[in-house]
Amino acid sequence: MKDDPIFLRTSVREFTAEKVEEDKIERLLKAAMQAPSAMNQQPWEFYAVTDPETLKKLGKATPFSSPAGRAPLAIVPMMKKDGIRLEQYREIDLSFACENILLEAEELSLGGVVMGIAPFRTRMEDVRRILNAPENLEVFAIIAIGYPLREQKQVSRYDPKRVHRI
């Protein structure tokens, strides 16, 4: 359990200026697409943003997205509208994909934080326009990723009082 990314991952909001290597970006995206998906519908597409000007715009897109403006990489998970059989599961599937990205980031000595965009329609549209994404995609979140500026220790959240055994 010592090296288990689940028990090491923290939300990282400040990053060094070091760029995230292309092979690591690809691993993050592969991890995202390995996520469970209802009926294997895979309702996702991902925008990997490394352009400094676009990152700055993403950092100003919402009251809570400033880490994206300071990161060398942002991954924006998008929900497909077309060809989805179980629309009500899109958000759940995208949540799994985001968690996979965060866990793989930890495995790659990177850090990250997810900033929710959905279900706020105005924010979803603002980010979609920043990315010039087609209208058949809806923004789910922004994940700021990079090399952590400082080491952070995870605090255990386990609370046995919240566990009910039957």
The CATH architecture designation is 3-Layer(aba) Sandwich
**CATH superfamily descriptor:** NADH Oxidase
What is the terminal-to-terminal distance?
26 Å
Shape: globular
> Which structural class do you get from the secondary structure elements?
alpha+beta
Q: What share of the residues lie within helices?
A: 25-40%
Average pLDDT works out at 94
Main sheet attributes: strand count, strand direction, barrel closure: 5 strands, antiparallel
Q: Please compute the radius of gyration using only Cα atoms.
A: 16 Å
CATH class: Alpha Beta
Number of helices: 5
Q: What's the assembly state of these chains? A: single chain
CATH-defined topology: NADH Oxidase
Order of helices and strands: HEHHEHEHEE
Low-confidence blocks of residues:
none
- Beta-strand portion reads 15-25%
Number of strands: 5
Number of domains: 1
Structure notes:
The protein is of the alpha+beta class. The protein has one domain (5-150): 3-Layer(aba) Sandwich (NADH Oxidase), CATH 3.40.109.10. Helix content is 33%, strand content 17%. It is built from 5 helices and 5 strands; from the N terminus they run H-E-H-H-E-H-E-H-E-E. Strands 1, 2, 3, 4 and 5 form a 5-stranded antiparallel sheet that branches. Helix 1 packs antiparallel against helix 4. The longest helix is centred in the middle third of the chain and has 18 residues, at 90-107. It is globular, with a radius of gyration of 16 Å. The relative contact order is 0.24. The model has no long low-confidence stretch (mean pLDDT 94).
